[in-house]
Amino acid sequence: MNIRGIPFIFFVLFLIVIPAWAEGVQTEVKPVAANGNSSVTSAASAPSSAPLTEHMLDERIFDDRIMIRGYALKIATASKGFLLAMINDDAAPAYRKAAAVCVLRERFADQIVAKEKILVERFLLRQLERAASPFVQIEIMHTILILDRYRYFDTMVPAIIRKMDHYEKSVSEQAYQAVQSVNQAGNNRSREARIVFNTLRKMFFLTRKKLPHASPDDVQLKRKLELLRWSIKILGTQELERLPQEVINLL
Length: 251
What we know:
Elements: H1 5-28, H2 38-45, H3 54-74, H4 80-88, H5 94-108, H6 114-130, H7 134-147, H8 149-163, H9 169-185, H10 190-206, H11 219-235, H12 245-248
Helix pairs in contact: 3-5, 4-5, 5-7, 6-7, 7-8, 7-9, 8-9, 8-10, 9-11, 10-11
């Protein structure tokens, strides 16, 4: 055996084995953060969900309104029994319940009389106590008012008016439209105007310090002032003396 060739053989093996070993080690090493914690790097590289913007929230609310209207059209020809069953279904989504109450009011409210009216009123009152969705609550209160306006006006209308201050624009709009619909269906009675006036007066007294700084584009404030003017027109201008000065300045 040629001893002189042994160093040369070891040199060749060194050139072949060492680079391959080094490459294998690199493939097994995980990236490590500056503080030595590899989980930090993996967490940083994971995709993060973008925060919801106001526009995205408005789109979701708008979609809820579209869903209610769309489903109301879908069940527009449903029977009274079907609508009552859907309203009573605790597993039904809120938009379906709201749509069912809306269709029940528009199609069958005038036909529900005598003993059936008493039963339906009790049924809707129970549903109102259980309802968590403001959409469903407003639809139920509006329907109960149509069934028995005189009996429930002093309890349902103030509750709907207070919903006009809801933080969701769609709920506020729905409440305003419900009150307007009820007022337009009436005969401008002083009793009803008094209830509307007293409700708004209390609300304005609670927020009178904020009124001088209110934005001229505040839609909720404009709607409440519109209802207030309606009530004063029926009751008389002497009611202005019972309002805070901050409100009078806006009328």
